[in-house]
UniProtKB/TrEMBL annotation:
<feature type="transmembrane region" description="Helical">
    <location>
        <begin position="441"/>
        <end position="463"/>
    </location>
</feature>
<feature type="transmembrane region" description="Helical">
    <location>
        <begin position="298"/>
        <end position="318"/>
    </location>
</feature>
<feature type="transmembrane region" description="Helical">
    <location>
        <begin position="254"/>
        <end position="277"/>
    </location>
</feature>
<feature type="transmembrane region" description="Helical">
    <location>
        <begin position="117"/>
        <end position="141"/>
    </location>
</feature>
<protein>
    <submittedName>
        <fullName>Lipopolysaccharide biosynthesis protein</fullName>
    </submittedName>
</protein>
<dbReference type="GO" id="GO:0005886">
    <property type="term" value="C:plasma membrane"/>
</dbReference>
<keyword id="KW-0472">Membrane</keyword>
<keyword id="KW-1003">Cell membrane</keyword>
<dbReference type="Pfam" id="PF01943">
    <property type="entry name" value="Polysacc_synt"/>
</dbReference>
<feature type="transmembrane region" description="Helical">
    <location>
        <begin position="41"/>
        <end position="62"/>
    </location>
</feature>
<feature type="transmembrane region" description="Helical">
    <location>
        <begin position="215"/>
        <end position="234"/>
    </location>
</feature>
<keyword id="KW-0812">Transmembrane</keyword>
<keyword id="KW-1133">Transmembrane helix</keyword>
<feature type="transmembrane region" description="Helical">
    <location>
        <begin position="330"/>
        <end position="350"/>
    </location>
</feature>
<dbReference type="InterPro" id="IPR050833">
    <property type="entry name" value="Poly_Biosynth_Transport"/>
</dbReference>
<feature type="transmembrane region" description="Helical">
    <location>
        <begin position="415"/>
        <end position="435"/>
    </location>
</feature>
<feature type="transmembrane region" description="Helical">
    <location>
        <begin position="177"/>
        <end position="195"/>
    </location>
</feature>
Amino acid sequence: MAELKSLAKDTAIYGASSIIGKFLNYLLVPVYTISLPASSGGYGVITNMYAIVALLLVLLTFGMETGFFRFANKGDDDPNRVYSTSLLMVSSVSLTFLLLCLLFLSPIADLFGYGEHPWYLGMMLIVIAMDAIQAIPFAYLRYKKRPIKFAGLKLLFIFISISLNIIYFVVLKGTDVGAAFLINLICSFTVMMGLIPEFRAFRYCIDRSLMKRMLYYSFPMLILGIAGILNQVADKIIFPFVYPDEAEAAVQLGIYGATSKIAMIMAMFTQAFRFAYEPFVFGKSKDKGNKQMYAQAMKFFIIFTVLAFLAVMFYLDILRYVIGRDYWEGLRVVPIVMIAEMFMGIYFNLSFWYKLTDETKWGAYFSLIACLIVVLMNIFLIPIYGYMACAWAGFTGYAVAMLLSYFVGQKKYPIGYDLRGIGCYVALAAVLYILGEQVPISNLVLRLAFRTVLLLLFIAYIIKKDLPLSQIPVINRFIKKK
């Protein structure tokens, strides 16, 4: 029982730090989009740069975080030796990568369209190397069950980043997009200083035999990681290369990047569910009737993601103010990106069948197929449809991965999902969404009131069908007192 309480506490801290961090980082969107007009293309540069960063981080860590946990907990190897070997491998690869890139910075900057500002890329390359190296000490903190320091450093990064961005872009009215990258560099360096004890608390050595075994284990994780991250950022990397008007590409990408951030509310919900659901699934894997619990968990996940979708779409007239007014033309991507995020969340929930049966190869197949769809759709459709192609590519890729995982999973590890009940919720949400969008009400207050009524109807349906008030702990106690 004590171990379960410890797990729950640690999970809550890790989860809260990640979700709060994402939410606080979300606050940078209005700072950037109000300070950098869409026509400047500045936010497009930020969107493109951070997409490149995300991909390179996966490459430079090459699955070593997972490898560290696997071998440190296996019991056959000294955990400190595993840590030292992991850290030295990632550090040597990252520093070699950084040195080579800085030596050839100008041609690389030209290739990515930053020939006039090569140090935009240069600063972020230094950030990438530092962040890749930091990944192993952060994994070590988790291994040593030190969630407070882990969360503290993550939140410190966000706090400094937001503070410096507000000072430069809001208080000083700065407009140089390079300042965003310099601030990121300062924040990463600050975190690096905070990890000094983790860099000094052991004897550096590299075990060549262990290194080979770790690389063999981690390589499939690298493939999965590349496929997974490309599903999320391929559109933002590909866009400047295939959009017909090179000068306009950064403008259009900035509009897409800013408006799709509104849909990240769904991603934050999915991640919150993920932190709670992952330990739940593996903890219940040996219990009798576990499949019924998985089916119920899936149903409630879909119910509440659909509720989140309706809430965002019904109040988009208010939420749009989190971005600059000249980015509003891209708001049409929000419902598509939100549904794509919902598909990704469902795919994540479905993925446990191959994790529980140790057939993780299926995860690689599904992710690679989705990745291929996303990349090809972006390459061929962005020149025709612009950023709308990005939204539909993500929608299609995740939909295919979700459906493949469901149908293959039902053969390998059948679970009796309540498809009829889920279908009723989805159908009701679709009807309410169409009503909210199509009923013409010009007055903003009346329009929001009408949509609030529609949202309450959906909530009432949830309460009636699957979540009676008597089952909600706080309300249940109040009812009993009555």
